[in-house]
Design brief:
This protein has 486 residues and is an alpha/beta fold. The protein is 26% helix and 19% strand. Strand 15 and strand 16 form a beta hairpin.
Length: 486
């Protein structure tokens, strides 16, 4: 058996033809849907990028214990487990967060890996002229100068390496290939020919920031949407190249194919742009997911089963006959592909912000019940975040190491107060989430989540589900206090 997983970043399902969008040109996503099970209720768990990838490795939620950070020494990593059982694993990616401080332990779990440089201000091309500070926008402009032709574009380079791997290994057995694109994450750097499919103009704004949208008629956001659509069409074209090879070598016979994303993205919906600062609405957490499973052989069908990112690792391990890790919370997606009831509730959120639960119809988002957004701690043996180590001032606040969690094998870990003086977020602080309050939505009557409801009976029921999910995840005691759930 073999597994091919094609992963995107920030892919909003509402822009795909296979989820009802007839404006954006994505025929190969429709072609994929014709050859797979398409999920309508697949959810992210831990947000955003690297927390989602930690779930992909470990099959368990992590946002109640940790913000963005590396894999921990005690984490059960699916690619590493496959390696340990003789399965060849290979990663091809241009996701630049893998070679930053907060992501540097993920790609090393694979047997081999290929890293494609240049995305989102990746410190790639060295150019000292007029240098005055570390600036992602400056570096991004430099990088783009070295990708003037489409074949030089990072997306094209990732796909080329994926096609080369499939050409070399299509007749081999027992491998897992993870093809991971940073696209369609911002900035929306895309060859002009794809933009011309949507406009005769030349929209230049392609790097929206995570902040509220002041004006729905903002020209910048309109240009960003056009560039996002154009980039999705480019993603679709290169997806088609991989599907062509699957057809050519009849790999569908013995290859599981998964196409997924870490989370979605908002481009003006409900007055928001980006992610991270607003409540995790459906545009962010209800994500596209496609699976062709040679064990099930279901194609051209849809599933309404409630499933999540934590279910991917157990599914891949099961295909190869490897038992899932004893601390993995996810489950093999076999039943979900048959559209059978799969789980009662799904937990999701960002560290230190709303803690959310859904049963597929109702969504409940619980905010901190105090202005200080405390108590809140980071539990880690790897004190790094995104592009930096924890500061000495933070580490000096560390409490006595704690050994209270089974998922760490009761290994003592650092317990460090989450301090917004150090964990800086652009345009917002974690405690700002309180201004939205706790929210309850009924997705049947309000699928766009525009009208929060007041329903004490449903809120109490969802609180019960939230407590159960938190208990199953060994949520730290102080999270119950922060959320007023004692």
């Amino acid at each position: 058996m073999k597994v091919l997983m094609i992963m995107y970043d920030s892919l909003n399902k509402r822009f795909l033809s296979s989820y009802g969008n007839n404006k954006v040109i994505t025929p190969n996503f429709a072609r994929l849907a014709d050859h797979s099970v398409t999920f309508d209720c697949f959810h992210s768990g831990s947000l955003p990028c690297m927390p989602a990838r930690r779930e992909l490795h470990t099959g368990r939620y992590n946002f109640l214990h940790r913000s963005w950070g590396p894999l921990e020494p005690f984490d059960e990593s699916m690619p590493q487990m496959l390696r340990d059982h003789g399965i060849y694993t290979h990663l091809i990616t241009d996701h630049c967060h893998y070679w930053e401080d907060g992501g540097a332990t993920y790609h090393n779990r694979f047997t081999t890996y290929e890293l494609v440089r240049g995305q989102e201000g990746d410190p790639w091309i060295g150019e000292a002229n007029h240098y005055d500070c570390v600036d992602s926008i400056r570096q991004d402009k430099i990088n783009r100068q070295y990708m003037l032709n489409e074949e030089d574009h990072f997306h094209a380079r990732v796909c080329k390496k994926a096609l080369d791997f499939l050409e070399r290994n299509h007749d081999q057995d027992n491998w897992f290939l993870q093809v991971e694109y940073f696209d369609p994450h911002e900035p929306y750097f895309v060859p002009e020919k794809y933009v011309k499919m949507y406009t005769d103009e030349k929209p230049t704004f392609d790097w929206p920031q995570n902040m509220p949208l002041v004006d729905q008629g903002d020209t910048n956001i309109q240009e960003a949407v056009i560039n996002y659509q154009a980039l999705l069409t480019m993603c679709d074209v290169y997806l088609g190249k991989i599907l062509d090879l699957l057809d050519k070598y009849e790999l569908w016979k013995d290859t599981m194919v998964i196409v997924n994303t870490d989370h979605g993205y908002m481009l003006g919906e409900k007055g928001h742009v980006g992610k991270n600062y607003m409540p995790p609405y459906e545009e962010i957490v209800n994500t596209p997911f496609f699976i062709w499973d040679p064990r099930v052989k279901k194609r051209g069908v849809r599933s309404t089963a409630l499933a999540q990112t934590i279910d991917i690792a157990p599914t891949i391990l099961s295909l190869f006959g490897v038992n899932k890790g004893k601390h993995m919370q996810g489950k093999d997606l076999l039943k979900a592909q048959l559209d059978q009831k799969f789980r009662d509730a799904a937990l999701f959120g960002y560290h230190g912000m709303h803690v959310c639960v859904t049963d597929g119809q109702y969504v409940y988002m619980r905010c901190s019940q105090n202005e200080e957004n405390t108590p809140l701690f980071e539990y880690t043996l790897m004190p790094a975040r995104i592009k930096s180590m924890f500061r000495i001032e933070e580490l000096k606040q560390m409490e006595m190491p704690t050994a209270e969690f089974a998922f760490t094998e009761y290994t003592p870990v650092m317990k460090i107060p989450s301090d917004e003086r150090y964990d800086k977020r652009i345009y917002f602080k974690c405690s700002d989430h309180r201004k939205f309050g706790s929210l309850l939505f009924d997705l049947i009557t309000d699928p766009m989540q525009e009208r929060p409801i007041q329903d004490e009976i449903q809120e109490e029921r969802m609180l019960g589900l939230l407590r159960i999910c938190m208990q199953e995840n060994e949520a730290p005691t102080e999270q119950y206090e922060r959320l007023g759930l004692q």
